[in-house]
Amino acid sequence: xxxxxxxxxxxxxxxxxxxxxxxxxxxxxxxxxxxxxxxxxxxxxxxxxxxxxxxxxxxxxxxxxxxxxxxxxxxxxxxxxxxxxxxxxxxxxxxxxxxxxxxxxxxxxxxxxxxxxxxxxxxxxxxxxxxxxxxxxxxxxxxxxxxxxxxxxxxxxxxxxxxxxxxxxxxxxxxxxxxxxxxxxxxxxxxxxxxxxxxxxxxxxxxxxxxxxxxxxxxxxxxxxxxxxxxxxxxxxxxxxxxxxxxxxxxxxxxxxxxxxxxxxxxxxxxxxxxxxxxxxxxxxxxxxxxxxxxxxxxxxxxxxxxxxxxxxxxxxxxxxxxxxxxxxxxxxxxxxxxxxxxxxxxxxxxxxxxxxxxxxxxxxxxxxxxxxxxxxxxxxxxxxxxxxxxxxxxxxxxxxxxxxxxxxxxxxxxxxxxxxxxxxxxxxxxxxxxxxxxxxxxxxxxxxxxxxxxxxxxxxxxxxxxxxxxxxxxxxxxxxxxxxxxxxxxxxxxxx
Amino acid sequence: xxxxxxxxxxxxxxxxxxxxxxxxxxxxxxxxxxxxxxxxxxxxxxxxxxxxxxxxxxxxxxxxxxxxxxxxxxxxxxxxxxxxxxxxxxxxxxxxxxxxxxxxxxxxxxxxxxxxxxxxxxxxxxxxxxxxxxxxxxxxxxxxxxxxx
Lengths: 497, 149
What we know:
heterodimer, A: 2 strands, 75% helix, B: mainly alpha, flat
């Protein structure tokens, strides 16, 4: 009942003209960046971050969240029409989506991915409405040891599930923690790694770091190795899937939703969810050999799963203050900039923000369904804009964005430096997500560790003596043990293909 | 692409961080000091970096980064970065409009090799559009420079 009342209150907030406009802008921009292969939702959120900081917190979070789930809708368009995933999570959609387009069935492929995304997203939001307050209530019992262990578990999981080398991903965690310590130590007032610079005294800002690591570095990568999309000369018709298409897709959509929801709650699993979903459908199918030849199940399941997973990712972020992926970490950063401490008290102390955001996600999903299909021809035209003209605009936006935060050139320099760092990280296969996550969670980890050690008079046993904290630590140990026993799950693309 | 080069850099960084952290003060386990977290993070980073270096140098373990990647247009990458840094450093003195126009001119003329007409047209249009969007419409503060705009 409490959730229903909260949701009704949320709708009264989300349905104001201002918030609907922010939601619309977020969804539209999200779809746009999802469509454009050179720029992802992380970069887009980073670009809009400074502008959003001029808005009220509810409006800003509604808009930034809209970019995230909007991008999941848009990512499928390029996968289906160009065989280029607009988003990393849309890689699997290329397999059957592009084949369907080649057979002249681009319309049903685009249609089912939009409807599937809508169904997956909406059902996941229902789960979010009921699960997030429950989790938050349970987390009220958490003290510094529990929060420390939870933070460690989250970092371990994100690192564990990252692509490529585990050690390289793990190296990014201490690096992120070191970066998080730049500035004044809140406990002793000592300045750390500031070198007398005014820009560094307040610590490194999340915005210049994220803009550099995701925005600038993506542009430099694309300048160095340009993408040359080739357009399929196919007419997009029958956007509404036929009855047979629905019949074939109904169970993949339901399975995709359930899998996406469960996997989305876990830190670091977002990217793997679509691969898991595709693999699952192949196992359930009576004709697994047809996967990859252009069957609608191969589009419906991963696209649904993708959206359910992205919406479910809000559960740990909103109820525990623990981000499951880099975008959630950025949204968490946005809350911190507003002085809203993320964690179990968020729902209680800022109900308007929590319920307003959830309600806006319902509205956003409806908007995206209505907007997406008629706008597909527009997206196709936008894809024809040469990157030569697009990348200077992105760089200008980055410069303005980081400058406008504090009207400080120092922030812009920090952004450019992290742009170079991000580029080198991509070249050498170091993942940015664990670094950003550790950077954002760093202050929380340090504060709780120091408090816990104060309580325990310097004994680390406090993390194992308390049952909740111990269970988080045990999960970490299991994860690391499975690594030593070489049980780490890797997304084997070849198997899926 | 050899992973050992960034690993060497990270090893040096970890040593430096530990050294600075020791000066900041580690405190005690009962009451950790300002250098506690950076010191142990530095140690952790150093150990991991050493593992990567040992894997690379002694066992000559090839990893994904060492494999041949798509050919990179280094000239374009370096020119873009140089233009970006020059533009940022000149923002304070030349102001937003002049430095941004020059920035886009360098990108379009030197990186993308467009003709002068297109370059000047596109750079003016992009600068004015972004100025109008951010300064006039969103009322964002932009650097003015010595010319006052």
